[in-house]
Write a structure and sequence with these properties.
Radius of gyration: 20 Å
Largest sheet: 7 strands, mixed
Strand content: 15-25%
Order of helices and strands: HEHEHEHEHEHEEHEEHHHH
Helix content: 25-40%
Shape: globular
Structural class: alpha/beta
Number of strands: 9
Distance between the termini: 26 Å
Strand order of the largest sheet: 3-2-1-4-5-7-6
CATH topology of one domain: Rossmann fold
Length: about 350
């Protein structure tokens, strides 16, 4: 056996020994990619977006990816699907981040009664149901900083108490993507819950060096293709996601996009990007001020590898990249969980 094959065999062997991953609200799979890179085997994933699940199937072959509303499926429905992908009694870890719009500070109309704020409760209920069938060793929950705000404190404290009641020790961290080699000032809350009888040490992700500016991440890319109704992947030679909207707004024609207003916020070459996008098609303006970022440029600013491909239409791709957890941050988190478990 060659050295390369031996290394691959050893990696696969370690992955088979680690808890298998169940991803809830997976989106494109940024969190999933980090765990896979850290040696975990991704076995099952769920998301309400069919486009996100197509992305998942393209990039995580071998995992069971299900497009469905977790509210409609319910804990038992989720468990029945997971049992088809993973043998009952197996060691598993559960990762994910429910849609954050109800907690987001950018959503100025957000209220504690927003129906989306009930998703953390559902998350706990799914964990509890999966505990009946599997050996759940850890849970990871990611969301926006606003979840800890006073108006959402009841939901947040309920999440913490729910995890503790299920037998987990919780490490609560506010993590910034920039500290993990991702040129973006994206800050999120991450709860890492390790089963009480297994936790060897607290979960402490190690910072990583990497790109710190927009130029380092995307400065060498060629011009992207612009959207047209008949555009296909074959028409985009550099990368299937290196495309963007036609810059038809008068704001671009007048070169008035520079650094003004939320919808026309322009990135700066020598600085990191803010959180990369927001809402459908609302993706930031390229540093040249003449167009918006391409999907690929947004992906690279999120820390996705160039081998990763997003599926779906333009709006669906923007939504996927904007909601994703940066993979390098996710990898550091996954590695920290391995250390906490003594693996």
């Amino acid at each position: 056996m060659t050295k390369a094959k031996q290394q691959l065999s050893n990696t696969q062997s370690k992955a088979n020994q680690l808890p298998k991953i169940v991803s809830l609200f997976s989106g494109a799979g940024g969190l999933d990619h980090g765990f896979k890179s850290a040696g975990f085997k991704l076995s099952a994933a769920f998301d309400i977006s069919p486009a996100a699940i197509e992305t998942h199937k393209r990039n995580f072959r071998g995992a069971t990816a299900t497009a469905g509303d977790l509210i409609a499926l319910g804990p038992r429905g989720v468990a029945s699907i997971v049992k088809k992908a993973i043998d009952a009694g197996s060691r598993i870890g559960i990762i994910g981040g429910p849609p954050c719009q109800g907690f987001s500070r950018a959503n100025t109309t957000a209220t504690a009664s927003d129906p989306r704020n009930q998703l953390p409760k559902l998350y706990i209920e799914i964990v509890q149901e999966l505990q009946r069938h599997f050996d759940v060793e850890f849970v990871v929950f990611e969301n926006v900083l606003g979840m800890r705000d006073k108006k959402h404190s009841a939901a947040y404290q309920s999440l913490l108490s729910g995890l503790r009641a299920l037998g987990f020790d919780i490490t609560e961290k506010e993590l910034c993507a920039l500290d993990f080699g991702v040129p973006q000032t994206r800050r999120r809350i991450v709860l890492s819950a390790i089963r009480t009888d297994l936790a060897v040490k607290p979960v402490r992700p190690r910072r990583k060096k990497g790109a710190t500016t927009v130029r380092e991440a995307i400065g060498a890319l060629p011009q992207p293709k612009f959207f047209s109704r008949d555009l296909t992947e074959k028409d985009i030679p550099h990368h299937p996601n290196h495309w963007t909207m036609n810059p038809i707004s008068p704001r671009f024609q007048m070169k008035a996009a520079s650094h003004g207003g939320r919808c026309f916020k322009q990135l700066t070459w020598q600085k990191p990007s803010p959180t990369i996008a927001f809402g459908h098609r609302e993706i930031y303006v390229h540093p040249n001020g003449k167009r918006r970022l391409s999907i690929l440029e947004a992906m690279l600013l999120q820390g996705f590898p160039r081998t990763f491909v997003l599926k779906g239409n333009l709006s669906e791709q923007v939504e996927q990249v904007s909601n994703a957890v940066p993979p390098p941050l996710a990898k550091s988190l996954a590695s920290a969980i391995r250390r906490s478990l003594g693996e």
